[in-house]
Specification:
two-stranded parallel sheet; 7 helices; six-stranded mixed beta sheet; transmembrane; about 20% strand; globular; Serine/threonine protein kinase; alpha/beta
Length: about 280
Amino acid sequence: MHHAGETPESTVAGEGSGLGARLAAAGVGRAEALPAGPEAPSGARAGGTRTGDGVAKAGAAWWRGSWVIPSAVAVVVVGCLGAAVLRFVDFSGPARSAQPAPRATPPASVPAPAATGPRASDQPVRADDDLDQVCGGTFYPAAPKHRGDSPHPMMISVRESLTAENRFTRTLNRIAYSGSAAQRRAWAPEPPRAQLVACLDLTGPGKPIRSCKAGAEKMSLVEGKYRLTVYEVATRRKVAEAALTGGDRACPFVILTSAGPTLYSAVKDQQLYDLLHTRVEG
């Protein structure tokens, strides 16, 4: 229902004018209020009809205004990011005085030297091989002590090579087995009953003696120089020490292929007995 003096076109024009005003009030860029229509010719009455050209102009103005807000938001975001970067990044670099001093590298630790000296065994003596170990630095606290009245049972351990560490037990058979039971127990004791060990070690050559045949070859026999050291089995305490030269100047009956090009004169049983009997029987 229309009031007098109004036409449908004037109502549409009024609505268009209201939309333009609202866009302008909302601040959408340069959006002007949508014109109600083409500019009326001079003398035309108010409330003229809206043409298609007016609608196209209003749409173009609204389209230009719709890009303003996103552009403004983008500018604000970029500005905030730039401020944050400038706040957390120091382009001037650290001051030289603030740089920490280089840390000194601690010297590499030097391992402690291996313990030397006699070593106690936590096992008792069971065999001749255990007594050979006394010559190498081991002692057996559970063994009988060298004290009290004689006899003092002794075993003789021999090394007759300058290069090998092999040892063997030597028994003075004439002394041990041609006398009393007491002498046998003293000079050929059971290993667990030994109080002393006599270590006989070849230390080097002496004067040349002769040449000995070994098959088609000839080998030189020289004086053998030895060291004789007597230890207590229970503590490896040194009881006696002597240097001697092998008195057996004859060529040996058996020559081992591992003996090398030189043969050494052996120590006679009588030499050992003369040096040891006071420690065993005295």
